[in-house]
Amino acid sequence: MGKTEIKYLTLSQEDLIEAGAFDLQMAMKALKEGLVKFKDNRILFPDKIVQIFNDETQERINCLPATLLDEKICGVKWVSVFPPNPRRFGVQNLSAIIVLSEIEKGFPVCVMDGTLCSNMRVAAMGATAADVLAKKDAESIGFIGAGEQAKMHLLGMKAVRPGLKVCKVAAVSVAEEEAFIRDLSPLMPDVEFVACNTVLKDAIVDSDIIVTATSAQAPLLKAEWIKKGAFYSHIGGWEDEYEVVKMADKIVCDDWETVKHRTQTVSRCYKDGVITDADIHGNLIDVLSGTKPGRENDEEFIYFDAVGLAYVDVSIANAMYECAKAAGVGTWSYMQENMIFEKDLTGKVKF
Ligand SMILES: NC(=O)c1ccc[n+]([C@@H]2O[C@H](COP(=O)([O-])OP(=O)(O)OC[C@H]3O[C@@H](n4cnc5c(N)ncnc54)[C@H](O)[C@@H]3O)[C@@H](O)[C@H]2O)c1
């Protein structure tokens, strides 16, 4: 091994799956460790950089860095969000790539698909919240939205509530509901899937766990459909009417200070004076660490809103990288075999 070589592991989505890194339990463990380390000031988390190409559709590419000081890993997620993609091209909305570097020499160690990690992070966050905020005996789950985030969220919820028996799904088209069921039902044969024929109410009424994961930007979820004791994971932007926020016994966020400056329903309620800081029960870490109580009875309606924290993506990505290395999966590539002027450059330089 040359002293000045730089090699990094390239991991495609297929490599990660082959390595066993499509693991929601592993993601939840990495997520919890990330939340604790951030609280203990062991993570650097600068502002993200946003470039929006279309104000109306919100097509954008964001750059989100974070450093795990204890793991000595600095990572960045380069993530594209193109909401019209499914309708316009029949492809996913979100795609991402993640780069991890060590922080001794500062050299890159891994370039990996970030879509799987990013989607697992969203699901791991909702599922970790459900673990402490949803009823222990939850049996039914209802989805508004049947896209990539919804699918992954079901895996997360089933990981923490294996007793889920019924999954109802409503989306803009029946074809999407059917695709959701086609993709998920082989993975959980003990669950009865119900396509709701685009009738959103039918997915929600009587559901112990409610998930909205849409690109709608409209108040789709109605308070009157929600039963006592439900847990609600809100994933998209504006997806529910203000009454849903107002009826919540507890509102928990991944990070309220981040959420309140965004465009989620709770953020809108805050900006419109419908809720104040005092109406927020706390952040998920407060509940996980025991600073704030989780669910206290079977009657509470608990609202969870997460906008995403890039240091959690980097924490999960690092766990996936370690998993892939241990499995011997992926392709090692040279960034350089030696330094620029150590090479024979004769006849190869233009100046
Ligand atoms: N909170 C987070 O950390 C986080 C992370 C990633 C993505 N997101 C957001 O999650 C949302 C879903 O993302 P995705 O990748 O699953 O998108 P997607 O395009 O794959 O799916 C969107 C779903 O929304 C449904 N939908 C749109 N309008 C609707 C309406 N009026 N009624 C019912 N259903 C409707 C569509 O039918 C579709 O099933 C997006 O808003 C995205 O920005 C949030």
Describe it for me?
The protein has helices spanning 13-18, 24-39, 85-89, 115-133, 148-160, 174-184, 200-204, 242-247, 256-259, 265-271, 284-288, 310-327, and strands at 6-11, 43-44, 49-54, 59-68, 73-81, 94-102, 108-113, 140-144, 166-170, 192-195, 209-212, 231-234, 250-253, 282-283, 302-305, 331-336. It has 351 residues and is α/β, with parallel strands linked by helices. It folds into 2 domains: 6-117 and 310-342, 2-Layer Sandwich (ornithine cyclodeaminase, domain 1); 134-305, Rossmann fold, CATH 3.40.50. The strands form 2 sheets. Strands 1, 2, 3, 4, 5, 6, 7 and 16 form an 8-stranded mixed beta sheet that branches. Strands 10-9-8-11-12-15-13-14 form an 8-stranded parallel beta sheet. Strand 3 and strand 4 form a beta hairpin. It starts with 5 loop residues before the first strand and ends in a 15-residue tail after the last strand. The relative contact order is 0.18. Residues 81, 86, 93-94, 122, 144-150, 171-172, 176, 200, 213-216, 218, 220, 235-237, 306-308 line the site of nicotinamide-adenine-dinucleotide (NAD). Nicotinamide-adenine-dinucleotide is lined by residues 81, 86, 93-94, 122, 144-150, 171-172, 176, 200, 213-216, 218, 220, 235-237, 306-308.
